[in-house]
Amino acid sequence: MQETFLLPLIIALPLLGFVLLGLFGKRIGEPAAGWLASLLVLGSFLLGLVLLLQGGGRWALPDWLPGIPFSLNLDNLSGVMLMVVTGVGFLIHVWAIGYMHGDPGYSRFFSYFNLFIAAMLVLILGDSLPVVFIGWEGVGLASYLLIGFWYHERINVDSARKAFIVNRIGDLGFLLAMGLLWSMFGTLSISELAEKVEAGGYSFTTLTLAGFFLLVGAMGKSAQVPLMVWLPDAMAGPTPVSALIHAATMVTAGVYLLVRHAFMLHDDAYLSGLIVFIGLLTAFYGALCSLGQWDIKRIVAYTTLSQLGFMFVAVGVGAYWVAIFHIVTHAFFKALMFMTSGSVIHALGGEQDVRKMGGMRKYLPATHLHGLIATFASGGLVPLAGFWSKDAILAYSFEYGPWLWFLMLLASVLAALYSIRWYVLVFWGEYRGKEHPHESPAVMLWPNHILMGGAIGVGFMGLPYVIDYKNFIEPFLTKAIGEFPHEKLPVLTEWVLILTSAVVAIAALWWGFRFFQQKMPAWYERFQAAALQGFYADALYNTLLVNPAKGLAELLFGGDKGLLAGFAGLGNLVGGLGSLLARLETGSLRFYLAGLLVALVLLVGWGVLR
Amino acid sequence: MIHVGLWLPLLAGLSLFMLPSLGRTFAIVSAAVSLAIAVALFAGYGGQGVAYASQTPFLPEVGVYYAVGLDGAGLLLWIAVGLVVLLGVWIAEVPVRFLALALMMQTGLLGIFAAQDLIFFYAFFEATLIPALLMLWFYGGAERLKAIYIFALFTLVGSLPMLAAIFAVRYLGGAESFLYTDLVAHPLTGQAAVLAFLGFLVALAVKTPLFPLHAWLPSFHQQNHPSGLADAMGTLYKVGVFALFKWAIPLMPEGFKEWQGLLLFLAAFGALYAAWLAFSAPDWKTLLAYAGVSHMGVAALGLFSGNMEGTVGALYLLGASMIYGSAMFLFVGLVYKRTGSLDILPVRGLARHTPALYVLGMFLLMAMIGLPGLSGFPGELMVLLGAYKVSPWLTFLAFLAVIAAAAYALTAFQKLFQETPQAQAVPDMDTREWGFAAVTVGVLLLMGLYPKLFTVYLEPLGKALAALFGGAS
Amino acid sequence: MIWLVASALLFSIGAYGALTRRTAILMFLSIELMLNAAALSLISFSKLTGSLEAQVVVLFIIAIAAAEVAVGLGLIVAIFRRRETTSVDELRQLRG
């Protein structure tokens, strides 16, 4: 690993796109702006690939702040993330060239899109925590700008604002983690922290606290319960945004942060247990809510939430490489799912309600194929990508405890159900709307073809050991994450688990396929009404947090005016004292004389007594 | 050269005031020259201690010298002042005499940062008040008289204990003169230090502003001229953190230690309190006033931590917030120019007509709420690192403000720029405003991405302060 | 010694008079009485301690008292001409 200038260049390319398109976007125009942005991302991808094949790289500017360098680090872990972000990012950029066609803010869109990639790269490549934080909040900014892209609609801006504020709650956790780690170790470079923690001699509880703070940050960015409320509303942004930011990349940043700090987590049973709990909660919450949505993007958004929960469980049970593996497979099939949804929306001229869809397999054959593969991958059908990473999570969960494995299996069943529901409502049956669906242009189809290939094939780099085929990704990632001794499950158990999840997935997909084609029974309707509202999470937060906070602001505002009045009152007090004293000015000579004599007596008396 | 830099604005201002026909260009040239001098002084700085020092006896029998000099903090703040004044006189739509007043105030501000003699420091500290009051009186709003009363009384009544403390510091400490070097060699101890520090504190808490002595600030900003120039100068006048760093703490370290706990609490509480209630602000001036209190609370928190990180953070944040705070006021002045109002409601949806202004506003807003990569962040981070070592809980309390800041800033911004446009067409930025935008954004990015430029000089100052308390770093 | 008592007595009489008399002339008289009482006590002290400074001070007192009486009586006459009264209770214009 050597010092190389190419590393900051990887970030500089999309940043350049942001600046150029921001300043000259109108002049560059459609579709050149889109192609420029896409090619810059491709450039980052290729540059990163070259560096990665050379074994990685580092770059640092010492003493950027006293005691804190501005350092970047490309190792296997950040390399994999880099490939995903720039690779999938490139495909989504190209797709967006078609999707955003005709939008008056075309260049502005790609400017922000490039900004996002640049910030995400800073996040991934940062070795010094403040640098990671620059990327962390940077992606938050890009997310805000992109969710609220069509800012003339109040709902879009409100959603963007909500996302930013909820993210900031997590950011506070990140900040506190930095404060604690600095006071404990005197450094904020992740590589140095890893060494110091491994060396030992620190307070265990303090380290747990630091890990907890980082967890809070991760929960905000990765929309875990209870900080998940921003993700469904983030669907207000254009579909490419949902695909790139809120499925494939930004939301996985929390998982990435935790994996990067695996050295802090792997010995900590409490923290890891908490992570498992949060992940489970989110996995179920997301899945159940998805089953009740009518907006096609919200359906997929909640599925993302659920899969993020899976990733957190993976981190919690110590399966760090598996969490990253799942990020990779998920990026492919979720982006595919979003972009397929986008193609359908585009085909129907903007319709997003699945109740007005259906039968798309007849009108959009290519998109239908994409959707089918996305469904199968998301549902965990063997041998697609989604199966292998999910199965690895299940295997590690089994080691943690068979009860966990069972719950995760249940969550996988729900995953299959929501996937097939999406498919059935959009593509199967008869078309329930009135538009004239037309297939997408080539510029939108080709990225989906590639993603489809990925959704099918990417899983094969991480096969379980019992299958006699090399697992590439585990050793590749473990080299960077850290070697944590791990007992392999006995061969028989492993095979039983694999077969069980395979069979369960097929059964669930099949059952769901039948179930969602019929009219919904009453119990489902009741369930669905609650799920549609996210089980009233937003209403709960509004009552418990948002409205009291606003009320407190009003109260304090009035209070501050009262403070000023208080100071004025102090002045009045002095005035009052003055008028009291003024009463001595009676104008009566005898009064003055009397006063003089009294004073004389007192003075003499004091002089005598001394 | 330091003398030229110090007195040029006053002379230029006086000339301009008496001969307004010299026009705005004269003011711009003067401000530009001042900034150039500040930058040149910075470039020529050796890196250690007080540079460009000079002293001449003024009242030698009493030990008063005309002594000036600049260290790392002073240079940073000279550049900040120079930049803001230049931006202000360039962009603000005000009568020429107003610009003259701003220039005169500049000398006062530069003197506060450069003074190496305590009496001269006090003189500059008080003298700067005069142009500020004049700006408020001649060009303020309908209820400016009340604002003047409040502003003047708070400042003056606060300064009297400081004057008493100044004499106590010299005569009880046993120093030979009022020079900084002499005074620092004779720090006060014991009960005298505690009381003298309180004396300094009262005046400087008004000027930070530190909760609860911030109550003068909202009316000050509300009544000032809507162009934002007087508010920008007022933002530069928030010198409390600097004065505490340079004079109060080094001269009475024992006194500071006594008050440290309370001060940390007030700073942290004030930071959160102001950010929270800014959400209810009905107009931009009030919002920015409270935002300023919040930022200064964070900076004060860093300084009161008494360690290297906190001090570096406090000074950096001070410089940064002077720039983005003032720029934000001037920006609001640009909005006023177009809409004739500073109220946050009704919704205006300006972005459709003024996209460039919208982007500029976004940059400034993001700098204000401490987005990493922009100038607000490095200072805030260093404050966090320093304050956490001393009090994790108060750090948590203060930094809840980052959530509150996002809430008030984005909500107000949304109402002004986003949502359905009601505004009639208004012009977007003209060339002059583009220049303002370019310079401001450039500085925000420079200070955000390359803080090393300044922190390398602030670090030894921070270490020196920490050494007063046993070298905790 | 007895002179001290005498001067104290004189002083109290003068004080009583100054506080209770309404007419300006009588108040003035009482003040003169107090002044002379002070002079008397000074002389007694001079005799007791043998110091001469006290006697010098008494000379000063006598001289100043004379001057003061002149000015004061002149003021009273002027006031009487203006206001037709010398009752101090009615002379209250300097009230705060």
From TrEMBL, chain A:
Q: Where is the NADH:quinone oxidoreductase/Mrp antiporter transmembrane domain positioned along the sequence?
A: 128-414
NCBIfam families in UniProt: NDH_I_L, PRK06590.1
Report the residue ranges that make up the NADH-Ubiquinone oxidoreductase (complex I) chain 5 N-terminal domain in this protein.
68-110
Q: What is this protein called?
A: Proton-translocating NADH-quinone oxidoreductase chain L
Q: Which residues cross the membrane?
A: 6-24, 36-57, 77-97, 109-126, 132-151, 172-190, 202-220, 241-263, 269-288, 300-321, 327-348, 369-388, 403-424, 445-467, 495-516, 563-583, 589-609
Superkingdom assignment = Bacteria
Keyword Transmembrane (UniProt): yes
> What is the native source organism of this protein?
Meiothermus ruber (strain ATCC 35948 / DSM 1279 / VKM B-1258 / 21)
State the membrane topology: Multi-pass membrane protein
Please verify whether the record's keywords include Transcription regulation.
Answer: no
UniProtKB/TrEMBL annotation, chain B:
Q: Where are the transmembrane segments?
A: 6-22, 27-45, 65-91, 98-115, 121-140, 147-172, 192-217, 229-249, 261-280, 287-308, 314-336, 356-374, 394-413, 434-451
InterPro entries documented for this protein: NADH_Q_OxRdtase_chainM/4, NADH_UbQ_OxRdtase, ND/Mrp_TM
Compartments it resides in: Endomembrane system; Membrane
A single Gene Ontology biological process assigned to it is:
ATP synthesis coupled electron transport
This protein's source sits in the domain of life called Bacteria
Family to which this protein belongs: Belongs to the complex I subunit 4 family.
Per UniProt, residues of the NADH:quinone oxidoreductase/Mrp antiporter transmembrane domain are 115-401
Q: What is this protein called?
A: Proton-translocating NADH-quinone oxidoreductase chain M
Keywords from the named record: Membrane, Transmembrane, Transmembrane helix
Q: Which GO terms describe its molecular function?
A: NADH dehydrogenase (ubiquinone) activity; NADH dehydrogenase activity; ubiquinone binding
From TrEMBL, chain C:
Question: Annotated Gene Ontology MF terms?
Answer: NADH dehydrogenase (quinone) (non-electrogenic) activity; quinone binding
Q: Where is the signal peptide?
A: none
Keywords (alphabetical) are: Cell membrane, Membrane, NAD, Quinone, Translocase, Transmembrane, Transmembrane helix, Transport, Ubiquinone
* InterPro entries per the UniProt record, alphabetical: NADH_UbQ_OxRdtase_chain4L/K (IPR001133), NUOK/Mnh_C1-like (IPR039428)
Pfam families recorded: Oxidored_q2
- Membrane-related topology note: Multi-pass membrane protein
Catalytic activity reads: a quinone + NADH + 5 H(+)(in) = a quinol + NAD(+) + 4 H(+)(out)
What transmembrane ranges does the database entry give?
27-45, 57-80
**Where is the protein localized?**
Cell membrane; Membrane
GO CC field: NADH dehydrogenase complex; plasma membrane
E.C. designation(s): 7.1.1.-
User: What HAMAP family has UniProt attached to this entry?
Assistant: NDH1_NuoK (MF_01456)
Q: Which NCBIfam families match?
A: PRK05715.1-2
**Subunit architecture:** NDH-1 is composed of 15 different subunits. Subunits NuoA, H, J, K, L, M, N constitute the membrane sector of the complex.
- Write down what this protein is called: NADH-quinone oxidoreductase subunit K
Q: Which organism is it from?
A: Meiothermus ruber (strain ATCC 35948 / DSM 1279 / VKM B-1258 / 21)
Give the lineage. Bacteria, Thermotogati, Deinococcota, Deinococci, Thermales
Gene that encodes the chain: nuoK
